[in-house]
Amino acid sequence: MIAEKLKNIFDPFVCLNLQVWENFAKLGTAQNFPKETILKKSNTTEKYLNIILKGSGGNLIWNESNFVCIDIAFENEFLFDYMSFTLQKSTPIEVRLFEDTSIFRISHQNLQQTLTSGNFGEKITRLIAESLFIDKQQQQIDLLTKTAKERYVEQLQIRKGIEKMPLKYLASYLGITPQSLSRIRAQKLKT
Questions:
Q1: Which pLDDT tens digit goes with each residue over 129-151?
Q2: How far apart are the first and last CA of the chain?
Q3: Residue 147 main-chain phi, psi, to 5 deg
Q4: At residue 117, what are phi and psi to the nearest 5 degrees?
Q5: Are the CB atoms for 13 and 88 separated by under 8 Å?
Q6: How far apart are CA 76 and CA 138, in angstroms?
Q7: What residue spans of the chain are helical by DSSP H?
Q8: DSSP assignment of 37-61, as one string?
Q9: Closest by Cα among 45, 49, 54 to 24
Q10: What is the DSSP letter of 89?
Q11: Residue 106: pLDDT band by 50, 70, 90 thresholds?
Q12: Cβ atoms of 93 and 134 closer than 8 Å
């Protein structure tokens, strides 16, 4: 089941034989976590590459008096501190779950094994990096070229379950206050 799920996640980028994903799935485990679980504390080093099978979470950073959400992830998306994972250094990013969540996770050590084995490991990790880069760049473009309402409506269309995300984190991800997001939601309900 995990292998088929991984294949479906990556098929839009590269179509690999199911056997490749069965081998990749052996590197990690599927785990369930309750809402508000902190997968990585701030100022620590990321040890896992996480793929959300069901649920949601985000990358948060403390800013003076509250957490700011700098990235969100939902079903079939990656949720981990990529910079910390890649460099194996601590960062101020906290990785937290927003709801009960099922995750497929691979340790840094196990991922390194696949990179040296030649079994499509380099291709898979390159695709992960490209996907994360494209998502982050699109987020930056949207922040500069779209209104908060446009960004919110777009996220509703492309991300299943976003309405369950805590208001304060969604608002900070969109670059607005929770009060502004409440007004946008109220306007959206009227239309």
A1: 888 888 889 888 988 899 988 99
A2: 40
A3: -75, 165
A4: -80, -20
A5: no
A6: 18
A7: 2-10, 18-25, 82-87, 108-117, 121-145, 148-158, 167-174, 178-190
A8: -EEE-TTB---EEEEEEES-EEEEE
A9: 49
A10: -
A11: very high
A12: no
Predicted TM-score of the model (pTM): 0.86
The structure tokens listed for 126 are: 């390159």
Asked if residues 52 and 5 have their Cβ atoms less than 8 Å apart, the reply is: no
* Structural domains for the chain: 2-190 (2.60.120.10)
Question: What confidence tens digit (pLDDT) does each residue in 79-98 have?
Answer: 999 999 999 999 999 999 99
Rounded to the nearest 10 degrees, what angle do helices 178-190 and 167-174 cross at? Answer: 90
Report residue 110 as tokens: 């196990």
Integer Cα distance of 8 and 21 in angstroms: 10
Selection from 29, 59, 65 nearest residue 42 by Cα:
59
Residue 117 has pLDDT above 70, yes or no: no
Residue with tokens 């990096």: 129
Burial class of residue 89 in the structure, from the number of CB atoms within 10 Å of its CB (0-12 exposed, 13-18 middle, 19+ buried): exposed
Q: Which two tokens stand for residue 67?
A: 């957490």
Neighbours of 158 (CB within 10 A): 8
Tally the residues of the chain. Answer: 191
